[in-house]
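Action item from last week, closing it out:
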Amino acid sequence: MKRILLLTTLLLCAAMAWGQKLTRAQYIEKYAETAVREMKATGIPASITLAQGCLESGNGNSSLATKANNHFGIKCHNNWKGKTYHQDDDAKNECFRSYKDADESFRDHSDFLRYRDRYAFLFDLEPTDYKGWAYGLKKAGYATAPNYATHLIQIIEENELWRYDQLDPVARQELPPTPVQAEVSRQFKPLPGHKLYQASLSREIRTTNGVPWIRARAGDSYAGLAREYNLFTRELLSFNDCSRKVPLQEGEVVYLEAKKRESAPNLDKHVVEEGETMRQLAQRYAVKMKKLYQYNNLRPGSEPEPGTILLLRKPR
């Protein structure tokens, strides 16, 4: 396997030296590990990253990619303080970000999606829902082309890029891996804990409904725990259906990943007791609070009356 990968790398380098354009397969081979690394760090599906790279950079052959190492067509915007590259796009002589190498471009692409509120809803999707991500990117305005989502999906399915999403250690892997996928999996072993954070050895991580959580200690805060587990504070707040104004209490359950859309299969209903709130029940069963409101036709922000039979799964 190492010989095959080494030969592939040498061929890619030779092709670039001779001025030959990369094929789509070569581009995917070259940047698959980078996309998987970003997926493990941020939760963005590797298939989406690779498909966007293929589409936005012309498989790495565009002038923006070759001269500015910009693989995702990210423009300067007001907050960019790095190097720039100008070329015609929607308007003449537009400003694009320029990077020292492709790795920096891939990292900035991840940050570009994570730091902007308009993309925040995408991180509530399942990690293998590449179609949801594709349509979500179009909805959020990543690109103006009307068929942007279908182009991404076509690239993913024609090249079986969804296989790279299966490298998520939590996702089910029912299909045999491709040779490239197997090699990437060998090199990128799951970290202790979970895919989105470096586990702290001083805390015990448990799971409910397949979602990992820890128990808050005295003096803990969401901001502090976010730093400890390599997450953004707003992510951790979102995972736990909480706002910055609500202090974290000792002994409280803190989920380190987005809760599920439904409860475990054997738990489909709950009889509400006096004093129980929707957030408490969402935390107890590791279900998104907004889904509990939807399943029970309740107004967001309202609380169920004692004795109410609350559905924990989507009515069938």
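Closing note: The chain has three domains: 2-71+102-187, 193-255, 269-311.
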